Amino acid sequence: MSDLITVQGVVLSAMPVGEYDKRILLLTRERGKISAFAKGARRQNSPFMAAANPFVFGSFTLYEGRSSYNLNQVSVTHHFVELAGEQPGIYYGYYFLELADYFGQEGTDEKEMMNLLYLSVRALLNPKIDDRLVRCIFELRTMAEQGLMPEVFSCGSCGRRAGEMKELFFSQSLHGIVCRECVDQRTAPDAIRISGAAVYAMEFIVSQPMNKLYTFTVNEQVLKELEHCIHTYVERNTDRKFKSLQVLEVMK
Description:
By secondary structure, the protein is α+β, with helices and mostly antiparallel strands. Helices cover 35% and strands 23% of the residues. It has seven helices and eight strands. The strands form two sheets. It has a five-stranded mixed β-barrel. Strand 1 and strand 2 form a beta hairpin. The radius of gyration is 20 Å and the shape is elongated. The N and C termini lie far apart (50 Å).
């Protein structure tokens, strides 16, 4: 057996392999996105039976095989089994894992994305926060963490500060907010009006420490604005159809 390594991570997905094994996909702080085989994880007496599942956070001890890592030991810190009973919360959670998988890469430090996943899954279990708002926050902060943040502090065309604008608009083509003058000049023909409250919420999401993200709520009108702008922005900046989103659409 090769030398053992220990990583802090979260299980993004798990699939059966053979009769008793599983292949798990991990997002780790130390090595980015990696896959590992959990031998015997589907046996009733396996120490990996509960650990080799999505939403499990913990410390994973691995050894490197010929083509993949192999799971040697797991110390679970959080497993979020209660999320399974939340409808539609569980599907929002799966979507968050899918989006983290989409952006995850091997060999990168994924500490911030792991923290974001943990806090976002916890938020799904908080009855005081609308799951729709949790999705908006997770999506926008993910784009910020990946260097794909839309411009929310100044006009994407002329650079005028948001606080100086009497009217605010959001343009997908210019990747953020634009002022009335640039809209009138047809610099941003796809721009739609957006309220100051919605822009302030987006500024808060991209700039605050992680532990502050889920400390606010918005009214229904602002939430609809956030959904329209952020969901469309993520869709245009990714090239994958996420299965969990398709389930959520059916549930609507």
